Structure prediction request, 215 residues.
Amino acid sequence: MKKQTKIAPSILSADFSRLGEEIKAVEKAGADWIHLDVMDGHFVPNITIGPDVIKSLRPYTKLFFDAHLMIQPASPYIEAFAKAGADSITTHIELDEVNKNIELVKKYGKKVGLSLNPDTPYEHLLPYLDDIDLILVMTVHPGFGGQKFIESQLDKIQALRQKIDKTGRDILLEVDGGITSETAQLAVAAGADILVAGTAVFKGKDYKKNMNDLR
Ligand code: DX5
Ligand code: ZN
Prediction:
């Protein structure tokens, strides 16, 4: 893995009854960011956490809070996630109000992320490259942890890496879903800057070893 590649543990795979302690534990084990998966049972077939949970987790760490909103619509909730302490707010490009979502995240001074599902062509993102700070490529169909990495997404990661480099802008390329020590190498070789990992970090008890295995 490149030296500067970041690991963002997804708390989706943590013990939900002890989220604050789990965040402290992965911070101690070397996490770079904390990835927060927000699901609404509508855009994706699962329900997780909302802004109040993020707000209550905020005092547990100073690490960057990377909020991934898998909700439709997203715009009515962006202010609440910003005020809860998210540092980046990533919405999905499959939603109707992409421009509105970008503007709202900017308005609240947070890093603007856009995510693409596996079936969404990377070209859909190109019109927004001047307006965003982060691209989140889904390498599983969103909704659940522990799924298998979809290798066909590697071409998309590579294509987006090239487009980002052409802009000369500092847009982070993040990959989410099915990351293991094997797929981490593939994602980084394709150009990923940040790896989201749920199962691979939170399995067993030794989070430090898990993260070292990824690195
Ligand atoms: C899936 C979420 C991911 C998920 C990744 O919808 O967006 O962040 O937690 O989990 P693993 O690493 O187990 O695939
Ligand atoms: Zn996610």
In short: The mean pLDDT is 97. The domain at 6-214 is CATH 3.20.20.70 (TIM Barrel). The chain has one domain: 6-214. Residues 10, 12-13, 35, 37, 68, 140, 142-143, 145-147, 176-179, 196-200 surround D-xylitol-5-phosphate (ligand 1) (CB under 6 Å).
